[in-house]
Amino acid sequence: MLTGSVLKQAIISGANNICSQKEKINDLNIFPVPDGDTGTNMSMTISAATKALADSDSDKAGEIAKTVASAMLRGARGNSGVILSLLFRGFANGLEGKDEATGKDLVRALGLGVDAAYKAVMKPTEGTILTVAREAFEAGAKAVKKTKDEVEIWTIVCEAAEESLNRTPELLPVLKKAGVVDAGGKGLLVIFEGMLSVIRDGKMIELDESVSASEPSDDDTFRSAAAEFDEVINFTYCTEFIVGRDAAVETSPLKLREFLETIGDCVVVVDDEEIIKVHVHTEDPGKALQKGLEFGQLLTVKVENMRQQHEQAKAENDKRQQKVKLEVQEPTEEVGFVAVASGDGLVELFKDLGCTHVVSGGQSMNPSTDDIYEAVMATPAKTVFVLPNNKNIIMAAEQTQKLVEDREVIILPTRTIPQGITALLAYDPTVGPIINKGAMSDTFKSVSTGQITFAARDSEFGMKKIKEGDIIGLDNGKLTVSEKSPKKALLKLAKSMIDKNTTFITLIYGAGITQEEADEVFNELTVKYGTDIDINMINGGQPIYYYILGIESAE
């Protein structure tokens, strides 16, 4: 029988084990793109539990498991971290009300976790952490029919997990080609082995302080220093308005856009048959509004002095960096928005588009469920839309729905920054949340995303041999371009993604690109495609990606 104290020590030992080995697990990530590394995400997720356990003096197994599950849910980062938290939620459910745990209890609890994890993943892939967890449970379930000894049972669970891990390359050809096992499965095995060290040998694996589960920074993942807060404001007023289109006006909204570019920057003009939605930074909002009136009646208008707000924005940026806890706000408004983004320009843009809070994070910097939960609770709205803007953050965002009780949380599963921008532009304040959810989802799903970044490791995909440091281009996440410069990669990627149906292009340049370099690329795109396609450029200031390309096409 395992007491709560032993279970507590076992989980801390498992956490220490993965924290000490996280870089080895990160190295198993075979895709060359800098990402929210598996070892880092899993170690930070379970480290949230060790912090909670430090404050617990309970010796009841069920209470220890409940503490662990709650902390891991809030601390879950990335898909691997969310899956890990769901596995340990199974321990909380399986050990509920128990003072001590038998080997049979542990196996049953693991089975509950495996079931929850499989249900949480829309399209479970075998050869991953899910397979390792499931086959470890299945071996444990067979073992409990022959023995009651918890040490023997957990030993069998660990042995089965290792055997399953070694088979992952046979289930996922991409692992076999790279000559590695699944990173998430390896992380789970390392945790289980850390637990076994306590359960079998009574020995806790100590934390290697030199490789503790510290949070990755932009500087760790982008070879250029992260952009400092931009103190240069070219235009004073952030001006947004919606025009109800006059059917009698035949002039194209492109003419409105052309005019706005002569009086400001950060111009975004999106239209459909009924409205024109406008965003521009300018010194003369009146001229922008007057021009808008030529196309119909003004339905909504918002003008904000950015210079006046600059010091507040700097303070908020410092607040994000220092991780100051946000204050809970009563849900007094009808609708609010929370987005995930990194880079001062993108943070500013998402706030301009209506987000109350922008959670700092993205690729390689996956925020935890608790980070997103804090932002949701600090948004004073009865319904809060959350835009993760990264496929590896969606599951963490979805977990917030289980934590929030006094407001509705709607997760729009945006996988990229351009999808998030397009979704917000599609929001219609005249209709309710449910209709908006459908309309915004339909709109962002039509957006294709190109990304230019650097290879974080040597790799090979298809016939392409990628060396660490090469500039690579991704077409909706698929590696298609390898070049020696961001400009060449961007132009080649654009050529492959743009077709006759393309109507709108958004070019977002990051912290590693100068204004001059961005202008050069923008001008070349405009010369080649600008006759038939509306092209917009934004200084996103994002790390990791030199350029992000959003491409919208007519159906």
Summarize the structure.
This protein has 555 residues and is α+β, with helices and mostly antiparallel strands.
In words, what does this structure look like?
- Helix 1 runs antiparallel to helix 9 (183-201), helix 2 crosses helix 3 (61-75) and helix 5 (103-120) packs parallel to helix 7.
- The protein has helices at 4-26, 38-54, 61-75, 78-94, 103-120, 129-143, 150-171, 173-178, 183-201, 218-221, 253-263, 285-293, 306-322, 344-352, 369-377, 394-399, 417-425, 433-444, 486-497, 515-529; strands at residues 2-3, 100-101, 237-245, 264-271, 275-282, 296-305, 333-341, 357-360, 381-387, 408-411, 447-454, 459-461, 464-466, 471-475, 478-483, 502-509, 534-539, 547-553.
- The chain has three domains: 2-211, Serine Threonine Protein Phosphatase 5, Tetratricopeptide repeat; 237-445, 3-Layer(aba) Sandwich (Rossmann fold); 448-553, Hypothetical Protein Tm841, Chain: A,domain 3.
- It has a six-stranded mixed sheet with strand order 15-14-11-18-16-17, sandwiched between helices.
- It is elongated.
- It is built from 20 helices and 18 strands.
- It starts with a strand and ends with a strand.
- Mean pLDDT is 87; it is low at 213-231.
- With 555 residues, it is of the alpha+beta class.
